[in-house]
Amino acid sequence: MSNHSEDIQAAGSDTRPPMLDRTDFESWQQRIQLYCKGKDHGEYILQSIDEGPFNMGRCRDEIATGTDGPYLGPERDRVVADLSQAEKDRLRADIHATNILLQGLQRDIYKLINHNTDAKDIWDNAKMLLEGSELTKDDRESQLYD
Q: CA 93 to CA 41: how far, in whole Å?
């Protein structure tokens, strides 16, 4: 059976995102960002975390062509088949970003924010929960000698 520090070390491997150490949110934030950059479409993953999920938008299909130009049908929601390859990659990155963040959270924090479905909400809530609760450098050093 492993202990907590072994779990944190294992979580920092290439196959798993870095595990949150609640005493140092800022460090975890930097490590998560580096981990995301190292993934395929890392820029899209970070964009999902920073800006929110990809919005597929709406479109109008061409139903006929006339002398005045194309005639368009009613506006509709776009579906995956309407997307370019780059847009599909961005859409997949949303899912990947959510998985990375949820896998990097400790179980008690995960339980508090797992109802969020997109990476930006998860990120913002984790940040709100933990950013103010970090130990100062003096607090960490005093714990070493207690």
A: 7
